[in-house]
Design goal:
It contains 9 helices and 12 strands. It is of the alpha/beta class. A 5-stranded parallel β-sheet has the order 2-1-3-4-5, sandwiched between helices. The protein has a 5-stranded mixed β-sheet with strand order 7-9-10-12-11. The chain has a two-stranded antiparallel ribbon with strand order 6-8. A hairpin with a 3-residue loop joins strand 9 and strand 10. It is elongated and about 90 Å long. The chain starts with a strand and ends in a 5-residue tail after the last strand.
Amino acid sequence: MTSILFIGDNEEFYRETANILRVEGFRTYHAANKTNDISHALCVNPDLILCDVPKLSFPMEAKTRSVIQKHAYEKLIPIILILSCSENEVEKIAIKLGADGVLLKPYTKKKLLYTINICIQQAKKYKFFANNSANRLKSIITKTVPHEFRTSLNAILGFSEIIIDDENLSNPDVIELTKLINHSGKYLLEITNKYLLYIHFSANKCLKNFQYTDIEKIATSIAKEVSQKYNRTEDLSLAIFSAKIPIITDWFSFAIHELIDNAFKFSSKGQPVHFLTKVTENRAYFTIIDSGRGFSKECSHHEIDSFLQFDREFYEQQGLGLGLYLAKEIICHHRGCFEIASQEGKGTTICFDLPVNQNK
């Protein structure tokens, strides 16, 4: 049975409304317009909140509003305001409480039931999508994270055991195995750092402490370093101009590294990777182009999301699917725009921009 919490001080009005709702099969609860009463009533986890606001003065205290909003947002519970004011004043009050629907007195029974049903149906859709997203994330983390950690740990343990147990190893063999252990350790540290950065963004913390970063020096250095990692220095084409932008240097470096690394990772030796910039008075524009495998048309409709790897079911690839997502988040949080276009078998183009002047 669908439950509705009525918040308001008018007992007679509540009884009239409750009688209508009970006939239609709803279960109703009542709380006076007081913080303690509302906090206690919210424990029933209603499917919808009807909030009677009888005066334009909006007498509900800020603390009381906060209690309602917090619980409603966390549980995805729709709020309908019942107001006694003119239509041009509705929006101001509705926004202040974060309402999903509004009823202006006097209203009909039909209008009441229609508004309630619409809000409940919308809430069901939101909960469905939220649950699907949560289940998808849980499934991906369950499958991907342990696999990535296990692969690196197996390499570290396996190679180290060879060094310990094999007395006939020559010095060059020991050096080579040590390099492999070091590589696995670095990879494990890399995915751990990405996961920690992802947690930071998931907590909705604002990026602060901007500093002016020289894009030419950092971007050039990172691009050359990545091309050397893949033994493809001849495939790299650079046209990077000098500019200083307000961005946290370490995070800018991370974003550039991830985007350039993807361009090389998903293309082959001999296929060029272009990294271009254009600087205007107000913004710096970046373009990264590769001629690699691209991704399928179906994937092009997906929004860039955490733990999402394009076409992973068709290609063997390492990683958690966080690099591209975090790069985009860093750019957007620093007041930038980010776009990606790809065509299967022909490559991928990434374009983004960042402000040059912090005050604009």
